[in-house]
Each structure stands twice: as structure tokens, then as C-alpha cells.
Design brief:
Order of helices and strands: HEEH
Helix content: 55-70%
Shape: elongated
Radius of gyration: 18 Å
Amino acid sequence: MSLSALGSGLSGMQAFQTALNSSANNVANMDTNGFQPQTVDFQSGTNGGVNVALSAPSAPQSAVAANAPSGTDYATEAVNSMQYKFGFDMSAQVVKTADQTLGTLINITA
């Protein structure tokens, strides 16, 4: 039980870190003409964890006008970043609790 919780927490941390990286990239390129932001899609993992899929930009870079403004919305990215941070923190707490539980189980059997 604790090992599956540990794995779920770790996969959540990795997924939320990937999402945070994507959001940071979107904000960093907000003023880049023709930049198309990535979107994040969370999916259930096979063993109870979570995976994240990053979407490709909606239009190929060659089809986007070089002087077109970025499609990044700062308000949306700010909210997403806060959600991803809280998700990362929650996953870290799951890992911490699973580690403590597993340590307690090992101490009881030893």
C-alpha cells in the first residue's frame, strides 16, 4: 500500500513539475511574436499515478505570422501556475506520508 502511494506521489510530482515548466515557458515567451503556448492535459496513470501530456502548438510555426502577438494569456498562466504548485506540494505530502508509513512498518517488523 505504501509503495503504491509513494509511486503515485512521485508521478504526481513529476507531472506537476512538467506542467510548471510548460507554464513558465509560456510566460517567458509571452512577448515573442508568433509564439503559440503549450497546453497541459493531466491523465490517469496505469498504476494509479498521474501523467501529463503537453499539446503541440495549435498552428505550425510557419503558418503563424511573424508579427502576430503571442497567444499566451497571463491571467490563465498565473492561475495554472498556482494550481500546479499546490498540486506539486500535495504530491510531495503524499510522498512524505508514504515514506513515514513505510518507515513505521519497517520498524514494526524489524
